[in-house]
Amino acid sequence: MSDHGWLADTRTSYDTVAVSYANQLRDALAGKPYLRASLALFADLVHAAGGGPVADVGCGPGHVTAHLRKLGVDAFGIDLSPAMVDVARRDHPGVRFEVGSMTDLDLADASVAGLLAFWSLIHIPDDAVPRVLGHFRRALRPGAPLLLGFHVGGESRLKTEGYGGHPMKVHVHRRQPDQVSAWLRDAEFTVEAQMMIDPDESVPGAVLFARRLP
Predict the structure, then answer these.
(1) Residue 90 sits in which domain range?
(2) Where are any strands of DSSP class E within 18-139?
(3) Domain count within the chain
């Protein structure tokens, strides 16, 4: 499938579910202590590196972006779905959200002090991941931290319905941390830490901390 095809399907799907998705995820972090801890560590790394703007790429309804701002991070959100960005702006007034794609990231070189993609790389096919990570590296300042969160597994599936029964057409890719780490190293990041989330569940998660090499 061409970039245009799967990107268009992903955008349309999340435009369709934006309101119900936001309602389901609004308080999601409250019950996820390990995710909150990973975000707190990421915030500390940004502060330790001198601070500055931080991009939440694939921000959805903005709940993670807003959480980072409560931790003192100058975070802003980018999402492929215009409807999702509208919901984020509604729910988090005063926070910057904009429409954009991680496959063609419209950020200036070395312009952000940190970047995270929290369960948003899951819709990017394998052959496009290196290009996305190249954009992440280009946008990050040398030495700046990167945080990735994703589903763990070895398969992809087509999601046709979700978040209140709305129709969707998105591929969800589950990956092993070793594969994601290898992609990061190829993109000139150093991988600093890895944590499994809910390893005994049917679909575990993982977070990876990396840093852009000079």
Answers:
(1) 3-212
(2) 53-57, 74-79, 97-99, 114-118
(3) 1
